[in-house]
Amino acid sequence: MSFTATKFSHSLLAVPVNSSSPRSNDKPLSFSSDLFKHNPSSSFLGSTQKLLRFNAINKPFLHRRSSSPSAVLLQQTSNLLITKEEGLVLYEDMVLGRSFEDKCAEMYYRGKMFGFVHLYNGQEAVSTGFIKYLRQEDCIVSTYRDHVHALSKGVPSRAVMSELFGKATGCCRGQGGSMHMFSKEHNVLGGFAFIGEGIPVATGAAFSMKYKREVLNQADSDNVTLAFFGDGTCNNGQFFECLNMAALWKLPIVFVVENNLWAIGMSHIRATSDPQIWKKGPAFGMPGVHVDGMDVLKVREVAKEAIDRARRGEGPTLVECETYRFRGHSLADPDELRNPAEKEHYAGRDPITALKKYLFENKLATEQELKTIDKKIDEILEDAVEFAEKSPQPPRSQLLENVFADPKGFGIGPDGRYRCEDPKFTEGTAHV
Amino acid sequence: MYVCVLFEILLVCSTEYRSLFLFQSILHSFLNLRRRRSSKMLGVIIRNNKTILLRPSFSSAFRQFSSSAKQMTVRDALNSALDEEMSADPKVFLMGEEVGEYQGAYKISKGLLEKYGPDRVLDTPITEAGFTGIGVGAAYYGLKPVVEFMTFNFSMQAIDHIINSAAKSNYMSAGQISVPIVFRGPNGAAAGVGAQHSHCYASWYGSCPGLKVLAPYSSEDARGLLKAAIRDPDPVVFLENELLYGESFPVSAEVLDSSFCLPIGKAKIEREGKDVTITAFSKMVGFALKAAEILAKEGISAEVINLRSIRPLDRSTINASVRKTNRLVTVEEGFPQHGVGAEICTSVIEESFGYLDAPVERIAGADVPMPYAANLERLAVPQVEDIVRAAKRACHRSVPMAAAA
């Protein structure tokens, strides 16, 4: 394995942003697959050039957002992007995410869950579009808005709901909470409560995969990591540090920006000198891609390209998904700063409605089939709530457990066993 | 006194921010110079120093050295421990600034790049938050990283990952995600490097559940504890001391064995005594041993405890010693408030209050950011005479007032 920087010629890097080809509303970013279909022997730079052509825009930020994505999608799609089965899987996952979060709000207001609860409503197309394309062994690293990412990755609703209730049956036995969903089984490497904190952790997981493949000679280790974070995080230094190192070492990672325009009450355009986040990819020598994050099919097409690219060992991709959250920052946020007209506008672009429309218009699903899924999700959530309600609280004895992987904190002896298991190691008390 | 001489020699060279890697080589040559000069100018003291190290009572507390015990520097001890653990486990890798081609800012990783290649000895950009987080993420996902901070002062750039990503994950994930990682590098006051390069973080990291915090003093400590830290399944903060890197200590054949490994959470009684207990860690252990030597000449028998592990803290060894001597002096270089000494005092008061014959004496760094001027700097960190004075006070000997500020 070589972690040395990719060698590139300066002439290639010097390609200027072609700012004279703005993306128009009637031709939004179609992540047509030729985007990455360049000479496989060449580095990311070929695609970067294409990306620049595809993506360069100099319109004011708010005008970038296409107004009728589903209609646009239909116009440009001659061949269907998904099969019936895929369509139903996507629909089910999005409805699960939406309904789960609505249920969370209900339970929060009924006092069943507490602390900070950040809901994902409106952004489902991103979670579903990306995560449903992953394998179980692939990793995701999330933020404090992590319930739906965990659900998409396969963590059962019961386990997530129970965690939110602070019960011993939660996916972290009630020790993590809303902002800290982990599942080793599903390779959910955590929700992180701090802005930017998850990005290096995700980059490290990607580093592990490359290391396993190239140093430990585990040839089958071609897993990919997704790092999810928001527009506010893109002003944090750790974002830039990790774009640099991920590109430098060609790590199998996709940086997924969920640009929902608002960092709590700070508008993205009031916080960022150049609001087009995807542009920061080419600056670090990786493709930067912009996609309509309210359209699960477009997100999925981008996800396929970026994830496959990472899996082939061709390095990271930065994807900016333009999306919107339908609720406040958290359930404690009065959400007074966002313009009602803006909220109204995005409510009209609901990603679930758009997918439904696509499925109907292409005769991929009937009303009845979708209703059956809705009903199934309702039942799953009723069951999850009931399960969480009935589950026991963590016992008092659990308080001091899991501080260390090592049961008492005394380390490992020369025989490879924990010191605390050695009967001779009796003196001394470890206060963990 | 020779300590003073040492500092003054060192302070001839002033250092700039982030130029420690230059400083280390200068330091190294000055340490050699000091040793050469000392052997002429201060031969008696140096001989005494060696006498202390080879005293039977010192060594018998843990292992009998053979008469032909080898000498090893702390630098070589750390280097050999890294080398052996990397050799034993391909999941172990080293990352940090200047660890590879430069051979380590303080030459701790010397030769490792050549032996293990750039995939396992990873030069990173100057991005503590980024590369520390990457190390933590790699540990989440099955590797065993050793992250070197050029000095622990720079760990402040990455403290979020040490505290929030590394220390808390095993608990937050209810044991699903363990974080086998070592954060290591020089900690505490060096010489003449000013306030931002002289901070001791033992009590900071020692206050955080989920971390293990180790502070080696001798070459034996450095080898045994670093190997234990790398093998450990949990995050370990490993606090070295720049001024000890060039110090030589005797090491037994057992210490040199590749299977050698010290227990975490166990202190070591470096010198047995009966009148007063002195606890110390890292460089201050050496000062405490010198103080004990001076005290012995005045008829006071001091027991010196090398804490080795700040967390878990070996409360039972400390309390057992205090119950024997009935007096306690704690020594550390860090700040007094909420310090390691404060924690030890509390432990003794909670568990052995009835055994105390005198108030606990706590010696710590002055409660100020480290001054640059050599004379002020000397006043700001504990000196041997401070320990002697405190021990005498604890033993109810009258002593002149301290000349401290």
UniProtKB/TrEMBL annotation, chain A:
<dbReference type="Pfam" id="PF00676">
    <property type="entry name" value="E1_dh"/>
</dbReference>
<dbReference type="InterPro" id="IPR029061">
    <property type="entry name" value="THDP-binding"/>
</dbReference>
<dbReference type="GO" id="GO:0004739">
    <property type="term" value="F:pyruvate dehydrogenase (acetyl-transferring) activity"/>
</dbReference>
<comment type="subunit">
    <text>Tetramer of 2 alpha and 2 beta subunits.</text>
</comment>
<keyword id="KW-0560">Oxidoreductase</keyword>
<dbReference type="InterPro" id="IPR017597">
    <property type="entry name" value="Pyrv_DH_E1_asu_subgrp-y"/>
</dbReference>
<keyword id="KW-0670">Pyruvate</keyword>
<dbReference type="InterPro" id="IPR050642">
    <property type="entry name" value="PDH_E1_Alpha_Subunit"/>
</dbReference>
<dbReference type="InterPro" id="IPR001017">
    <property type="entry name" value="DH_E1"/>
</dbReference>
<protein>
    <recommendedName>
        <fullName>Pyruvate dehydrogenase E1 component subunit alpha</fullName>
        <ecNumber>1.2.4.1</ecNumber>
    </recommendedName>
</protein>
<dbReference type="GO" id="GO:0006086">
    <property type="term" value="P:pyruvate decarboxylation to acetyl-CoA"/>
</dbReference>
<keyword id="KW-0786">Thiamine pyrophosphate</keyword>
<feature type="domain" description="Dehydrogenase E1 component">
    <location>
        <begin position="93"/>
        <end position="395"/>
    </location>
</feature>
<comment type="function">
    <text>The pyruvate dehydrogenase complex catalyzes the overall conversion of pyruvate to acetyl-CoA and CO(2). It contains multiple copies of three enzymatic components: pyruvate dehydrogenase (E1), dihydrolipoamide acetyltransferase (E2) and lipoamide dehydrogenase (E3).</text>
</comment>
UniProtKB/TrEMBL annotation, chain B:
<protein>
    <submittedName>
        <fullName>Uncharacterized protein</fullName>
    </submittedName>
</protein>
